[in-house]
Amino acid sequence: MKTHDFLLELGTEELPPKLLINLSNSLRDNLVEELKQLGIEIGKVSAFATPRRLAVCIFKMQSHQEDQLIERKGPSVGSPEKAIEGFAKSCDVDLNSLEKRSLGGKEYYFFHAKQVGQQIIDLLPSVVDKAINNIPITRAMKWGELDYSFARPVHWLVMLLDDEVVPANIMGLVSGNTTKGLRFSDSSFLEIPHASEYQSFMREKAQIEVDFNKRKEIIREQVTSVAKSSKAQVVIDESLLDEVCALVEYPRAFSGKFDEKYLNVPEEALISAMKSHQKYFHMVDSKGALLPSFISVANIESTNMNFIIQGNERVIRPRLADSEFFWNQDKAIRLDQRLEGLGSVLFMKSLGSMADKAKRIEKLSKHIAGLVSIDTQACARAGLLSKSDLMSEMVGEFADLQGIMGGYYALNDGESDVVAQAIREHYKPRFAGDEIPSTNEGLVVAIADKLDTITGVYGIGQAPTGSKDPYALRRLALGLLRILLEAQLDINLKTLIDVSLNLHSKEVDREVSSSIYQFMMERLKAYYKDVHVDGNVFKAVLAVSPDSPHDFHQRVEALNEFIQKIESKSLIEANKRIANILKDFDSNDVELDSRLLIEDSEQKLFQATESIAKQLSEQKDYKAIVRSLLELKEVIDTFFDSVMVNVDDIELKQARLKLINRVRSLFLSVADISYLSS
Question: Per-residue DSSP letters for 513-548?
């Protein structure tokens, strides 16, 4: 089969850096999907992305479609004449061309024809047009008087099949084999000799590494090298590295300095100014202390780098001066004095102001602290002051410093280290992979803050639906659950949800408690899926509805150990069998007179259950319980091999039902292991 290499490159104005990878991946995936729909086989696919271009190379693309047999089923023989004629007309044939065929004992009209496969060069214009138009773009731009829209205006289009231009007119652009190099060094067009040579050609002739990941590693190496030459360590934030990579085609890293006086400002504020405003990497010394220097990445090679360095130093200066000013201004007002101002900041309609939220967090924090024997006063104080920094100038400028600045201001106000640290870290975990708070007080306030938002938003009917989660409740719920699990806090979540709901105004629906719990369990399910816990294990534990996520987790761990044992398979099937037998059994009448049990095997089973029941009353170690339950295998197997439960003797039948119900109850003290058989 003859194959070709295909190149698509779309040249644009500078694309939004935070969208670049998504745009690139979407274009690649759309092309592949369109070719798949046409039955075109392809080999390796490579996507490329720079600030000014999106490109895809498809290797070993099938040269043409295979011929296809088209078949359509029509009305049955004997159907109204108009229906049959309409079917023939839709197939663009006369009645005599239709075939009659028996199907399911009835005759139908069928149309079949051979469709000759098209050459790939003829198919590609439509494929590319659809692939580009199907890229999801939230805010598309229009330019000139054209009707086309894209993330940014487009300027050139390359479509090469091997070394041959694929004729096309897409988005007002006529396809060709020429691309543009660097904006600042060479605006002339460069002719690409062959689709397969695109990456090497751009690297050698245009000095552009079009592979995003390779360019990213080039930047990482350059930045690291610059830091090393400055006898410092660079802190590389991966999201910042991605953003910088999406901003430059020709990376050239360099270092600059700023006045040491700014180091009196909290380092997080300086780092935020450098990252968010200028996309600078910061440097630290061997002890991790911030240095008065930065690393930036230019998009140009200059004969006078000092000029570029001085320009960047000049630009960052007012940003740092602003941070210094905000810091000095904010320190003049205590956090508790800012509470009144929070009253004018709306949290959410029907949920009151941020001051109202702070007071709810205070009360909820105090309640939670009491449950887990943590300093109630410190937790309450931290909860009350947790949102006060929202009224500061610094947080107004750098929103990502919420909580962090509150910790600094608390220390400046003379609050305890414990309170300050709890304020500082109560937003944690902020994202997937982020750490949970490091202090007990921070854990408590973080739980209170997250739960207050979840219950409030749910209570006013704004729960997440489908893919829509405007208030990030799923993220908050997962963060809350991670805290409870990873910090091993044994707290009754159902009760805590009720407590939180009751702290809200009357406008909040108290009847959503069970819905919130179910929502939390769905997030817990997602958590366990991410850590590769078997879905049936989760279902088995959920079936007994533990009140505490920590307790839930202990049961999961015990069940994970259980399913690794050889004996578990037999016990799982036995539990499934028992569940079926007990389907109509009244489990409320559980008193069992062992004297009614006449067989040796059922007496032994009774004695074994008695022994384990006594152990259960003395401990809550689910792994130990599971190990004891594993010892029941032989006696349960022997029981079912030698005893019939549903006998004619009503009294004996009831006794045996009560016996196997005892067995099931023992297992249910951990989980419903019958789910493990599905």
Answer: HHHHHHHHHHHHHHHHHHTT--HHHHHHHHTT--S-
Query: Does residue 351 contact residue 415 with C-beta atoms inside 8 Å?
Result: no
Q: Which residues of 346-384 are buried (b: 16+ CB within 10 A; e: fewer)?
A: ebeebbbbbbbbbbbbbbbbbbbbebbebbbebbbbbbb
The separation between the first and the last C-alpha atoms of the chain, rounded to the nearest angstrom, is 46
Query: Does the domain at residues 554-677 carry the CATH identifier 1.10.730.10?
Result: yes
Closest CA to 49 of 15, 1, 78: 15
User: How many helical (H) and strand (E) elements, i.e. helices and strands, does the chain have?
Assistant: 26, 20
| 423 and 378 Cβ atoms separated by less than 8 Å | no
pLDDT tens, position by position, 54-77: 999 999 999 888 767 777 888 888
- Please count the residues of the chain: 678
Report yes or no: 53 and 12 within 8 Å, Cβ to Cβ.
Answer: yes
Sign of CA dihedral 25, 31, 34, 39: negative
DSSP codes of every residue in 199-246: HHHHHHHS-----HHHHHHHHHHHHHHHHHHTTSEE---HHHHHHHHT
Mean pLDDT across the chain: 91
Q: Establish how many alpha carbons lie within 13 A of residue 213's alpha carbon, considering only the half-sphere containing its beta carbon.
A: 4
> Residue 491 — φ and ψ, nearest 5°?
-125, 135
**Which are the contacts of 109, defined by CB distance < 8 A and separation ≥ 6?**
73, 74, 75, 76, 77, 84, 87, 88, 98, 99, 100
Tens digits of residue pLDDT in 376-411:
999 999 999 999 999 999 999 999 999 999 999 999
What pLDDT, in 10s, does the model give residues 466-488? Answer: 888 999 999 999 999 999 999 99
- CA dist., res. 565 & res. 559, Å (int): 10
- Structural contact between residues 504 and 351, judged by C-beta atoms closer than 8 angstroms: yes
* H or E stretch covering 364: helix 354-371
Domain topology for 3-65+119-205: Alpha-Beta Plaits (3.30.70)
Alpha helices in 19-80 (DSSP H): 20-37
- Please give the CATH number for the structural domain made up of 336-532: 1.10.3210
Q: Which two tokens stand for residue 53?
A: 């271009």
For residue range 174-231, list pLDDT tens digits in order.
999 999 988 876 567 899 999 999 999 999 999 999 999 999 999 999 999 999 999 9
- Asked if residue 678 has pLDDT above 70, the reply is no
Question: Where exactly are the structural domains of the chain?
Answer: 3-65+119-205, 68-115, 212-330, 336-532, 554-677
The string of pLDDT tens digits covering residues 92-103 is 888 777 888 888
| Sequence-ordered list of residues with C-beta below 8 angstroms from that of 14, at least 6 positions apart, any chain | 51, 52, 152, 247
